[in-house]
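Could someone model dinuclear copper ion with this protein?
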Amino acid sequence: MSFEHRLMAAADETGGSFWMPPEISTSAAGVDWIFYFIFWISLFFFLLIVGLMTYFVVRYRRPKGSQPEGAPSHNMVLEVTWSVIPLILVIFIFYLGFKGFMDLFTAPQNAYEVLVTGQKWKWLFQYPNGYVDENLHVPVDVPVRLVMSSEDVIHSLYIPAFRVKRDVVPGRYTKAWFQATQAGDYQIFCAEYCGKSHSDMLAKVVVEKPGDFEKWLEKAANFLDTMPPAEAGARLYKTRGCAQCHSIDGTSGIGPTFKGVFGETVVMLGGAKVAVDENYLRESINEPQARVVAGYQPVMPTFKGRLKDKEITAIIEYIKSLER
Ligand code: CUA
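Reply:
Sure, complex below.
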């Protein structure tokens, strides 16, 4: 066991501390070790320097009525000592920091890949089979690589228990990776101020036991076949972007609210009146510009080809369930 490994093993106690959340990834112990190393060095030298200063102020004060003595010139041994010791410490901190940075930056080749999208104000996680979830499920003891981008402004994916934090930027991809060491639920935050609901931009990492992850993913990906359509629609409403423009509480957004809209007669741009039924909703999803509700801009993109018929049916069933 190398010196460094022994130090890390000593620091590797799960359960968290006064300063730190529990260490649930393979990188966490190393990150914490550097933190504590710098912390204790800082505390040690703070107390040493302030203590000596206080002592010297008292010990060498000029007594009343005495004349100032000539200042001493210099002390070679002392000056070399207080230059070389910090130099060694700083080089050691750089070495640890650089190693830790490379570890956090370089995902293993065989890592399981999850695509992450940040948007105001939610996270979406897409798995290799195409399934999208609002929470991040990962298998325990498997390296996971996140390939992340943003739909709008800069966000930052932050998982304290894994000591992972990386900006999520529009127009480019950023990456992060981790290997979880313990099953359980852990918090995800957004760590970059991104607007009024920044503090609500939360999600969970669910670390699954061996075998459970595959079962979960298979079941989750088949939600259209296993869930009641309205419930499946509620999920699609959140993961397919409807929620960005259409509220479910009666308030107007970029588009009209979904609440109580089914069965209503609505005035369109141009004055025509339309009864909102299944066919109108289907048309609005596939050809949003065909008939736009009065008072709104024709800005909705088409979902033709992006949503399967079954998904459209589920969303319509969900809208029907949102009674006034
Ligand atoms: Cu997203 Cu703050």
